[in-house]
Amino acid sequence: TMKNSVPQAASLLLEKLLLLVHVRPLPAGSGGETPPPAAPGYYDTSCFKRGDLLEVPRTLFIHFGIYLGENRVAHLMPDILPAFTGDRRQIQQVVTNKRLILGVITKTASIRVDTVEDFAYGGSILVNHMDRLFEDQVLGSEEAARRAEKLVGATAYSLLWNNCEHFVTYCRYGAPVSFQTDKFCETVKMIIRDQRSVLASVLVGLASIVCLGLAPSTTLPTIFIPFFLWMAG
């Protein structure tokens, strides 16, 4: 029915948005801060080679990075902090969800270098899993690493046009593409075909805030759904 499909559509769109933003649910009492990563030495980096493309599959998304050697990974993360300070010590601290979400809203990010532990956060790592999709387009490993190193620093961010997957595919295959973006766009098309669903989703979110208060579970859908096109631009 229409009443059931509207909340489901809103929930599906929010899930896809979070997939591209890389937001992770935090445990109760965390205060909105990112939990600590795996302990040093958790990963065996001896099997990684400079220029490898690393993937960390999670429940709703895949995070990507380029291995630079010596337990260092370059990866793109939305982050508001580089817009306010050039202090590398502050910027290099692990990005909290608050910094990340503000980075998405303001379209700011940084291509940063972290340890494998900070990059993967205890998730399993796939190595060069995307090579099979690009066949003869794979660049040399050293070329991929050098491209990543040249791009380290502050950068613009877009959910659809410049996320972590665009970064790694440019470095390793020479062309920025994102299969996660393609899936997201298909979901958006499915939902906005019926404008009533979008309007109803917004109304449901507003009603939820009035009835349930300002909680992330009710506030985020209301904020993200009406403005996803602006953020994606």
TrEMBL record:
Pathway assignment: Cofactor metabolism; retinol metabolism
According to the UniProt entry, where is the signal peptide?
1-28
Instruction: Classify the main location.
Output: cytoplasm
Name a GO molecular-function annotation.
Answer: phosphatidylcholine-retinol O-acyltransferase activity
Q: Which catalytic residues are annotated? A: C164 (acyl-thioester intermediate)
Q: Which residues form the LRAT domain?
A: 53-180
Q: What are the protein's UniProt keywords? A: Acyltransferase, Cytoplasm, Endoplasmic reticulum, Endosome, Lipid metabolism, Membrane, Sensory transduction, Signal, Transferase, Transmembrane, Transmembrane helix, Vision
Q: How does it sit in the membrane?
A: Single-pass membrane protein
Could you tell me where this protein is found in the cell? Answer: Cytoplasm, Perinuclear region; Endoplasmic reticulum membrane; Late endosome; Rough endoplasmic reticulum
Gene Ontology annotations of biological process type? retinol metabolic process; visual perception; vitamin A metabolic process
List the catalytic activities from the record: 1,2-diheptanoyl-sn-glycero-3-phosphocholine + all-trans-retinol--[retinol-binding protein] = all-trans-retinyl heptanoate + 2-heptanoyl-sn-glycero-3-phosphocholine + apo--[retinol-binding protein]; all-trans-retinol--[retinol-binding protein] + a 1,2-diacyl-sn-glycero-3-phosphocholine = apo--[retinol-binding protein] + an all-trans-retinyl ester + a 2-acyl-sn-glycero-3-phosphocholine; 1,2-dihexadecanoyl-sn-glycero-3-phosphocholine + all-trans-retinol = all-trans-retinyl hexadecanoate + 2-hexadecanoyl-sn-glycero-3-phosphocholine; 1,2-didodecanoyl-sn-glycero-3-phosphocholine + all-trans-retinol--[retinol-binding protein] = 2-dodecanoyl-sn-glycero-3-phosphocholine + all-trans-retinyl dodecanoate + apo--[retinol-binding protein]
Q: Tell me which PROSITE patterns the record gives.
A: LRAT (PS51934)
Q: Name one GO cellular component term.
A: late endosome
Recorded E.C. number(s)?
A: 2.3.1.135
Ranges annotated as spanning the membrane: 198-231
What this chain does, per the record? Transfers the acyl group from the sn-1 position of phosphatidylcholine to all-trans retinol, producing all-trans retinyl esters. Retinyl esters are storage forms of vitamin A. LRAT plays a critical role in vision. It provides the all-trans retinyl ester substrates for the isomerohydrolase which processes the esters into 11-cis-retinol in the retinal pigment epithelium; due to a membrane-associated alcohol dehydrogenase, 11 cis-retinol is oxidized and converted into 11-cis-retinaldehyde which is the chromophore for rhodopsin and the cone photopigments.
Name the protein family. Belongs to the H-rev107 family.
Report what the protein is called: Lecithin retinol acyltransferase
Which species?
A: Chroicocephalus maculipennis
